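Researcher: We plan to redesign the surface later, but first we want a full-length starting point. C-alpha cells attached.
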C-alpha cells in the first residue's frame, strides 16, 4: 500500500457521540469533493449524466468479455482434464495484474489515463476471445495474465473518472458504473456460450470486433474527459489508510468465499452437481448477474441517502441466508433464489467503492487501485480455498462453508463505519 503522513491525519472529526449514520455519510460525501480548500463551482458539483452513462457503457462492454471465463470453465476443464482448484484458478490469473492497481492508481492521480479506459475494451476482447485457441494450460495462463493487465488498466482509473463527473452524487455515479459492469457480466456468459455454439471454442476470436467498436465510441465521447483522480496526488495518508483498509479487508475477506462460489463456481455447480447442460449453466450465471444489476443500481444510491453502513449491514445479513436457502430449498425455488442471491451477493461493491472515494478525496485513483489490489488478493485466496474444499469434499460442501463464513461479515460493518468516522 502506498501511504504518506499527512497533516490532515492530526485533525480527526467524528459524528456527535461517536455515532455514524446518514448524517455522517452525507458529510463524508461532501468531503469527497475534489477540493477542500475552496468551495467547488457549480460545474464541479453537477452530475454529468452523459459522461457517467458513457463510462458505464464502456464498463458494460468491457466486463461482458471478462465474463466469458466462468461459463467457459466447464469446457476448458473437459478439454484440459484439470481438477476444480486448477480450473477455478484460471480466474485468478485474469485478476493477478490487479496487484499493479496501486501503481496505476498513483499514476492516474498524477496524469490523466483516459486512454487506458478508452482502449481497454478492445484489448480485453481480443485477448479473451483467443482463449479458445490456447493449446495448453500454460498458454491459457499467459493469455489471462495479459488480459488482466488490460482489465487493471481499465478498472483503476475508471472509478475516479466517474467520481470526477458525478459531482456530489458519487454513490449514484458508482451505482451506474457498477450496474454497467454487472449487466456486462450478466450478458457475457450468454454471449460466450452463443459464440461457442456459432463458431466453436476456437472461433470465439470473431467476437473481438465488438470490443474494438466500443473503444472507437469511447474515444469520441471521452477523449476530453479527465481520468485524473486527485487534486494534490501523492501517497495515501497513513493514519487514515491504516484505519479504513483493514476494516475493508475484514468485510471483503469474510464475504469473498460466498462471492466467488456464486460468480466463479456457479456454472460448474450447475453442470457437475445439478447435471444441467452448458447453456443452462451459463444462463444461471446470467440470472444471478442480471439481478446484480438491480442491486448495483440501488445499493450505491441508497447508501447516499441511508448511509453506507446501513446498506452494507443489510447485505451482510441477507447474502449468507439466501445462499443457505439456495442449497437446501426445493429445486423449484432455485430460480427466484438465484435472483435474490444476485441482489445480495454482488451489490456491496459500489458501496465499498463510494466509501473509498469518500475516505480519500485527494488520492482517489490510488485509493481505488489499492482497494482493487486488496480485493484481488482476497478473491484469489477465496477461489483457491473454495476449489480445494470442492476437490476434497464436493462443491455442495464448499458452497455451505462459504455461506457460513460470510456471517462473519456482520460485525465487520460497524468497524468500517467507525473507521470512516475517525478518519474524516
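Model: Full-length starting sequence:
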Amino acid at each position: 500500500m502506498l501511504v504518506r503522513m499527512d497533516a490532515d491525519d492530526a485533525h480527526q472529526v467524528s459524528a456527535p457521540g461517536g455515532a455514524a449514520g446518514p448524517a455522517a455519510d452525507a458529510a463524508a460525501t461532501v468531503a469527497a469533493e475534489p477540493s477542500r480548500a475552496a468551495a467547488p463551482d457549480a460545474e464541479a458539483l453537477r452530475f454529468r449524466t452523459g459522461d457517467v452513462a458513457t463510462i458505464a457503457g464502456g464498463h458494460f462492454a468491457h466486463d461482458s468479455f471478462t465474463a466469458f471465463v466462468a461459463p467457459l470453465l466447464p469446457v476448458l476443464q473437459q478439454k484440459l482434464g484439470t481438477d476444480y482448484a486448477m480450473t477455478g484458478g484460471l480466474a485468478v490469473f485474469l485478476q493477478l495484474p490487479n496487484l499493479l492497481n496501486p501503481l496505476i492508481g498513483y499514476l492516474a492521480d498524477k496524469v490523466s489515463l483516459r486512454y487506458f479506459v478508452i482502449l481497454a475494451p478492445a484489448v480485453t476482447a481480443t485477448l479473451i476471445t483467443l482463449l479458445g485457441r490456447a493449446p495448453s494450460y500454460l498458454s491459457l495462463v499467459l493469455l489471462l495474465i495479459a488480459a488482466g493487465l488490460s482489465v487493471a488498466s481499465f478498472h483503476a482509473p475508471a472509478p475516479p473518472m466517474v467520481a470526477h463527473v458525478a459531482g456530489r452524487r458519487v454513490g449514484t455515479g458508482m451505482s451506474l458504473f457498477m450496474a454497467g459492469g454487472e449487466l456486462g457480466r450478466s450478458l457475457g456468459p450468454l454471449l460466450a456460450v452463443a459464440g461457442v455454439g456459432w463458431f466453436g471454442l476456437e472461433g470465439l476470436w470473431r467476437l473481438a470486433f465488438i470490443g474494438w467498436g466500443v473503444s472507437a465510441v469511447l474515444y469520441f465521447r471521452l477523449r476530453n474527459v479527465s481520468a485524473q483522480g486527485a487534486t494534490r496526488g501523492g501517497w495515501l495518508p497513513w493514519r487514515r489508510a491504516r484505519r479504513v483498509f483493514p476494516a475493508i479487508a475484514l468485510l471483503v475477506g469474510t464475504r469473498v468465499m460466498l462471492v466467488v462460489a456464486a460468480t466463479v463456481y456457479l456454472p460448474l455447480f450447475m453442470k457437475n452437481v445439478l447435471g444441467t447442460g452448458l447453456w443452462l449453466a451459463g444462463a444461471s450465471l446470467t440470472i444471478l448477474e442480471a439481478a446484480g444489476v438491480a442491486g448495483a443500481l440501488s445499493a450505491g444510491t441508497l447508501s447516499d441517502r441511508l448511509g453506507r453502513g446501513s446498506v452494507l449491514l443489510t447485505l451482510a445479513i441477507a447474502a449468507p441466508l439466501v445462499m443457505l436457502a439456495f442449497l437446501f430449498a426445493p429445486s423449484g425455488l432455485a430460480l427466484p433464489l438465484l435472483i435474490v442471491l444476485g441482489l445480495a451477493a454482488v451489490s456491496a461493491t459500489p458501496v465499498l467503492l463510494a466509501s473509498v472515494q469518500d475516505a480519500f478525496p485527494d488520492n482517489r485513483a490510488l485509493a481505488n487501485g489499492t482497494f482493487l489490489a486488496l480485493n484481488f488478493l482476497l478473491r484469489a485466496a477465496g477461489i483457491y480455498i473454495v476449489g480445494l474444499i470442492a476437490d476434497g469434499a464436493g462443491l455442495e460442501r464448499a458452497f455451505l462453508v462459504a455461506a457460513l463464513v460470510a456471517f462473519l461479515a456482520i460485525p465487520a460493518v460497524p468497524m468500517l463505519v467507525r473507521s470512516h468516522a475517525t478518519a474524516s
